[in-house]
Specification:
The structure holds two protein chains of two kinds.
Chain A lengths: L1 H24 L18 H4 L11 H4 L2 H4 L8 H5 L14 H5 L15 H7 L1 H4 L1 H10 L10 E2 L3 E2 L9 E4 L8 H9 L22 H4 E3 L2 E2 L5 H4 L6 E4 L4 E4 L7 H4 L9 H5 L2 H4 L2 H5 L16 H5 L8 E3 L6 H8 L10 E4 L5 E2 L2 E3 L5 E4 L6 E4 L16 H8 L4
Parallel strand pairs in A: 1-3
Antiparallel strand pairs in A: 2-3, 4-5, 6-7, 8-9, 9-10, 11-12, 12-13
Chain B lengths: L5 H28 L10 E6 L8 E4 L4 E6 L2 E6 L10 E3 L2 E3 L6 E2 L5 E3 L8 E6 L4 E5 L2
Antiparallel strand pairs in B: 1-10, 2-3, 3-4, 4-9, 5-6, 6-7, 7-8, 9-10
Classes of the chains: A alpha+beta, B alpha+beta.
């Protein structure tokens, strides 16, 4: 009996000691009350060292929970993380509306230039509709090149294109083995796909696929390497429906930017992709398209003009011009009212350019902050037909040898 | 040294365990009872003597954050919390600018440039009987 009492007392002591030990392991609670939510959260008790994600999303204002979800009052890691949206990536398109949406944030209006989510979800980079339509057409599963399928089913009643919806592409329901193989091997490049293994393919999904260039960092100044986690890494072989990695091992920007088979000019590898390609090209215009060519429209003439025409320009007179918003987000230029910049044929501002009094143009690299000066084609010895302006024509004379 | 009997040893051990358990449990109870909850955010601020804020002065109160204005019509204050998403706006020569999303406000808080749609919030300022100033954020 006495022995049992000793064992019971020992068990009691052990239980209480373990309770002390576990409670001592809990982090000391550090409270943050973000001004946006005005609700206390304890995430920074453990995550005080996480860097500010961007100047537009300060932790003091947003906190962690409004983007990431999670249990804001929990000090136990498993419980705190149990309801996080998208795991470590709240911008994954499956949860992006809850994380990044809202009319004041990224699912606002076209007029307010903050309808990012609607545009991205319908964009070619998200639907992969062009590749799917192309392959299905090639192997006889459809009779035209119009997109009928996307990675996920989407409907867009407000679309200004002919396509109002896409059904979800289901490779298993396809009868052609090549299309089935395409489904199994070739769906790594849309922005919601898990990337291929390897450092050169490393990226996240959703918005972060393009905008997250480091640990907990969002930027609009994406270097070409971010784009190259999908682009220029190799080719899909349509005979075997497999991805063939590029075989070279580039050590310089000149070698790395494009695949060995590519032709390109000096500006195409010294600039970053985002210096020329616009937000509409990259994130879509809110319409469903059947092909990349329907949305990608920047050509050499956008900046250089043709032998008979100067490039389009615009003098900034409206303080609410989108050019100022874009320059605010990535202040590599001090854009002011009265400045004249280049614009695309759709009126999108190339806000990192300026027209100089002597008729030349400048561009500041969005990611590199390098200063570039260039001239219009007009007045030069170029005799290229003004109608033939795809890059292949310009490469005839201006391609770089490597 | 006197030998301890097995019975006494077991008794001593049992009592030791029980006393230690009791002490730990009491410590836990005291720790639980003495837990300090986070104080409620302050909504009332003593700004000091009114004479310290001369006529036509604009005083930045970074900790609140607010700006105190002293004009011919008396004391007033503007919250420096941006009405778009809650960032703290910065004082410029011609008004206020939000460093997060670029909203701009005139020096009296009106919106001149979005995305903010509402003016900066006016805060209540009272002059006490002792000629000190109190600012209220709620």
């Amino acid at each position: 009996m006495r022995k049992l009492l000793v064992i019971a007392a020992g068990a009691l002591l052990l239980t209480i000691s373990l309770a002390w030990w576990f409670s001592g392991r809990q982090p000391k609670p550090v409270e943050l009350i973000p001004t946006l939510t005005n609700q206390p959260e304890y995430c920074i008790s453990c995550h005080a060292d996480v860097p500010e994600i961007s100047k537009s999303h300060p932790v003091k204002t947003f906190g962690c929970v409004s983007c990431h979800g999670g249990e804001r009052l929990a000090l136990n890691a498993d419980l705190a993380h149990s309801t996080m949206r998208g795991g470590k990536n709240p911008s994954d398109l499956s949860v992006v509306e809850a994380s990044c949406g809202g009319s004041n944030c990224h699912s606002g209006s076209e007029a307010g230039n903050n309808d990012h989510i609607q545009r991205v979800i319908t964009s070619i980079q998200s639907t992969y509709a062009g590749a799917i339509a192309n392959v299905r057409f090639t192997f006889g599963a459809q009779t035209d090149m119009t997109a009928h399928f996307g990675i996920t089913a989407i409907t867009n009643a407000q679309t200004q294109s002919d396509i109002t919806s896409l059904a979800a592409f289901d490779p298993a329901s396809e009868s052609n083995p090549s299309i089935q193989k395409f489904g199994a091997n070739c769906l790594n490049c849309h922005i919601n796909a898990t990337p291929r293994e390897g450092d050169v393919y490393a990226r996240q999904t959703g918005c972060a696929a393009c905008h997250a260039t480091g640990k907990h960092t969002l930027t609009t100044a994406m270097p070409y390497t971010q784009c190259n986690s999908c682009h220029n890494r190799g080719n899909y072989d349509l005979r075997t429906m497999t991805f063939v990695e590029r075989a070279d091992h580039p050590t310089s920007r000149l070698q790395d930017y494009y695949q060995p088979i590519a032709q390109f000019t000096k500006c195409e590898y010294t600039l970053d992709c985002v210096d020329c390609h616009t937000r509409t090209e990259a994130m879509g215009d809110g319409n469903i398209h059947s092909n990349k060519k329907d949305i990608q429209y920047i050509q050499c003439k956008t900046c250089h003009g043709t032998p008979t025409e100067l490039p389009l320009t615009k003098t900034l007179t409206d303080p609410n011009d989108i050019a100022f918003k874009l320059a605010f987000l990535n202040p590599v230029v001090d854009l002011r009212l009265g400045d004249t910049i280049l614009v695309t044929e759709k009126g999108e501002p190339l806000w990192n350019t300026s027209v100089q009094p002597d008729g030349t143009y400048t561009m500041i690299g969005k990611a590199t902050q390098q200063h570039f000066t260039f001239k219009p084609v007009m007045g030069s010895s170029c005799t290229q037909n003004g109608q033939d302006q795809s890059s292949a024509y310009c490469h005839e004379c201006h391609s770089v040898q490597r | 040294m006197p030998e301890i009997s097995r019975r006494d040893f077991l008794k001593l051990t049992r009592d030791g365990f029980l006393y230690l358990s009791g002490a730990l449990a009491l410590g836990g109870l005291l720790r639980f009872l003495s837990y300090q909850t986070e104080p409620t955010p302050q909504t009332e601020f003593d700004l000091g003597q009114a004479v310290d804020f001369p006529l036509n002065s604009r005083t930045l109160l970074a900790d609140i954050p607010a700006v105190l204005l002293h004009t011919e019509s008396g004391f007033s204050a503007l919250s420096l919390v941006c009405t778009h998403l809650g960032c703290t706006v910065e004082q410029k020569t011609d008004g206020f600018t939000c460093p997060c999303h670029g909203s701009r406000f005139t020096s009296d808080g009106k919106v001149t440039h979005g995305p903010a749609a509402k003016p900066l919030r006016a805060l209540r300022v009272e002059v006490t009987d002792q000629d000190t100033l109190k600012l209220f954020t709620a």
